[in-house]
Every structure is written in C-alpha cells, then in structure tokens.
Please model this.
Amino acid sequence: MIRKLQMSRLFARRQARRRLLQFDLYGNDNLIDALSSMSRHTRSGLSLAASLQISVSAHPCDLLVQLHNLVMRGFSIGNACLKILDALPESKANSDCIMVLHVIALANEVGGDIAQQIDALVDTLLDRSQAKLERQTQAATATASMRLITWLPVICGAWIVSDSPAVRQVLLATPLGWACLTIGVGLNFLGRTWTKRLVHS
Model:
C-alpha cells in the first residue's frame, strides 16, 4: 500500500513537471513520455525489448525509433545503443540522447530493477530540461536589461542635445564635447558587446 502511494505521488509530481516544461527535448518531443511508458511496461513484467516496442508505438521519437529499428534487425539492445552512440556526434544538443543510450545499455546489461533505473533517468532529464528553461529565461531577462541600459543613455542624450542649445554648443562645437561623445559611445558599445558574449556563453 505504501509502495503504491509512493508511486502515485512520484507519477503526479512528474506529470506536473512535464506540464511545466512542455518543450522539445533536442528533436525528440516524446522521449520523456516514451521512457515513462517503458518504465511502466517493464514494471508490469515485460522485457526491455518488448517495452521499447510498445513505447515506440505509443510515443514515437527519433532516438527510440532508431533504437527499435536496430533491435528489429537483430541487434541486441546493448549493441544497438553502442551503434547509435558511435554515429552520434558529441555535443550539448545530443548530451541527453547520449545519456539515455548509456542508461538503457547498462540497464540491459546489468539487469536489476530496470523500471527504477528508467524512472531515475526520466527525473534527471526533467531536471536538466527545467534548468535549461531557467537559463533561457535568465538570458532573455539579461538581454532585455542590456538593451534598456544601452539605449536609454542614447535616447536621453539625444533629447538633451535637441532641447538645450548650450549643451549642443559644448558637445558638437568643442573638442571636449567630441571627446565625451566618443568615449560615451565607445563604452556603451563595449558594454553591449561584453554583455552579449556573457549571455550567449
């Protein structure tokens, strides 16, 4: 009874996090749903290969469809995972797919509670996806702040110059004014470029 209650709480928490995220996981929209389906079917007593086949039918995604096709051609799950890993370039975009293949290969080789291993994998993928979403939100906020901070002095300066003949005379008709304008524009451009690099990195 306690075990069922824990599983229902885990399922409810995962569903809530999934609704919160709802974005494409590196071209495999249904990857998390497919893995969750695999976990449920292996927990019900099916083999990993049978669970993979059912999950791909219900929640097709590029990675697991490719894995299933190799298994249907006679590859073992471990060898199919290694074959896909050899052809998959290592990059940030593929890091989750690489982790999924490693976990499935290890679960197939080691055995044990495969459903629990896949559940842990799904939780990790959700955590990483949520962290990615938070980083994107922070980057968007930083970009908006950068645009405000860099454009506000330009707009205020243009308004002051157009409104005050004395300021216009100093800025546009004296070497000191031109020096101030040059330094101000240069520092503004430098700050904008530096902030852009920080955000994109």
User: Anything to note?
Assistant: Confidence is low (pLDDT under 50) at residues 16-27. The chain has two domains: 2-136, 138-200.
